[in-house]
Amino acid sequence: MQTSARYQAVFELLCKIFKNQAPADVLINTYMRARKYIGAKDRRFILETTWDIIRHRLRLEFDAKSEDVRRVLLCYLQKKGEDFDLITGGTYGLEALSKEEKSWLKNLKSEPYPLNVELECPQWLMQKIDNPALVGLLNQKANVDIRANFISPYDLKKRLEKEGLFFSLTAYSPFGLRTSENINLNNCTAYHEGLFDIQDEACQVAALLCDVKMGEKVIDYCAGAGGKTLALGAISENKVLIEAHDVNFERMSPIKERARRLGATNIKLISKLEALDYDCFVADCPCSGSGTWRRAPDLKFRTSSAHLKNLQKIQSDVLQVAYQHTKSGGRIVYMTCSVLREENEDVVEKFANNHGDIQFFDHEKLWEKKIDVPYPFSSKKYLNFSPLLTNTDGFFFCCLKKV
């Protein structure tokens, strides 16, 4: 592809993504699947450029003094020192610059960024997080974490090195490996053999801290594609039945194939929640996903205060369902991939205040029981993982007991 055609593809993608109506990765995958003729090098260029612009969207809009997608792209190209003579238009290329655009670009002036623009965060979310250092790290590219599956991370590390993939051990998860390089799973034999699954370290640790035991009745209530379900299954070595449920049953459709690849034989998908005697009720609730901005920077533009309020209601409702279906002496594990207090501490505190038989676990003791490294958190009631504190995604974990 010529340079102009590459940037036309970037422009078409940004026009869809900047509408803030669907996840960027979904839009990109759909676009690429419909254009299988695009070669590997061109595909990589288009993807890297698109994600780079998404990650620096606020700065580019500020520099361009406009939210217009074409102006944002032209501003990006100028900052990158791109030769505009290569933007030639034609049947497949990005339209050549007009005289007005050339004049506009020539007269653009640099101005100091406001703090929220510098850190690439909408102002209202910046105020809610109230931690500039954390916000800045949430805009950095994340490492790739994997969970060793029925194999020690040491043995997996050696196996991957034979395939030319080099990982280091994670700091907290006893199953985890990490790399800063992208992995091509299509070419990874160890992945196809089910020796690992991609999962952020915080999620791996959260699954371990659920402390699932032989003979317990366990459910992953908001299972989605089953990442936590499969982690629970592997940690329990296929000896504990893990039920998986989601309001949208079709959302769990990937679990069967993933379970087959990973050798998980203790997973059961259920469409209706009927039992009232769960020992461990895991609620990985729908949330803003603010803790995953490193991987999905477009999420911050698709979050609104109204959406956040609706999520809080859903989270409270899920906890109430958990309460009704957990037996006395059982555990309710509340999780989100959010760093916003409104979705985490506020929801759990309100729930505990409304139920006198709900108690908080001592998370430091729980940690020391399951994790062989010092406890890194200041609170014993909650675990707030973050790229600032634990070098993971932002993730909230709270284990409650129904006494």
Description of the molecule:
With 403 residues, the protein is an alpha/beta fold. Helices cover 41% and strands 14% of the residues. The protein folds into 3 domains: 3-111, no CATH class; 144-198, Sun protein, domain 3 (Alpha-Beta Plaits); 201-402, Vaccinia Virus protein VP39 (Rossmann fold, 3-Layer(aba) Sandwich), CATH 3.40.50. The protein has helices at residues 3-17, 24-33, 40-55, 57-64, 69-79, 99-106, 115-118, 123-129, 132-137, 153-162, 189-192, 201-209, 227-235, 254-262, 305-325, 345-354, 363-370; strands at residues 144-148, 168-169, 176-179, 196-198, 218-220, 242-244, 267-269, 278-284, 326-336, 358-360, 383-385, 395-402. Helix 1 crosses helix 3 (40-55), helix 4 (57-64) crosses helix 5 and helix 15 packs across helix 16. It is globular, with a radius of gyration of 23 Å. It starts with a helix and ends with a strand.
Descriptors:
403 residues, Rossmann fold, 3 domains, 41% helix, alpha/beta, Alpha-Beta Plaits, single chain, eight-stranded mixed β-sheet, four-stranded antiparallel β-sheet
